[in-house]
Amino acid sequence: MDQAGTPTRMTYALGIECSNPSMRGGSRGEVALAKIVGDGLEYVDSLELATDARGSDGLMGAVDALCLKHEIVPADLARILVSVGPGGYTALRVSVTVAKVLATVVGCGVVAVPSAAVAGVGLEGLDAVVALASKKGLAHCTRIVDGQRKVLGVIGADELVGVGAKVLVGDGFVPKDMIEAGEGAGMEFRTIELTARACLEASVGMDEIDPSALGVLYAREPDAVTQWRALHG
Fold it and tell me: 0.85 exceeded by the pTM?
């Protein structure tokens, strides 16, 4: 209870992981809830986005359904955590926009969680490279050692070999020659599924920011921008 004797409600964090649909198994994304307990989070539940819903409708529908299931009202949300990339351009744009709007309406802060940090949950004790947003024989890579991330940027097979990591983590779109080069250098390849629960776990200790400052971590310039520049200089 507060000082006036009014029962206080538990505050919750909402996690959004829609950054890389190709690393989500059969769904396009997922949302999760956790109770905020001191400086940590206590996981409550997760819900995948409906496969027949598109864009922000699918994401908002999942948020509404999960909150309704646990009788959570907007005032109970004290923090929104969102996986911000690198990943799929449209998926990131939708999830970051929804997180920004929700946080603004509710009046809470947001945490921008790098998608490589989400992938890093469960890799404790490993020297790993997380490959995201694969395209045209390249992938955006981040090396994770003892929980510390070092962004390697967009690289190919030759650059990967020189990293010296022991494990390569990615989805089914990681370039075949990168996997083969890594295995030739003694790296084990593991497929991974990004989850909203992992997004919650990865966010612990990260700073909240104002919703207006929330942005996307793109692996490379969007094709539309590249094509515009090519046409107009």
Answer: yes
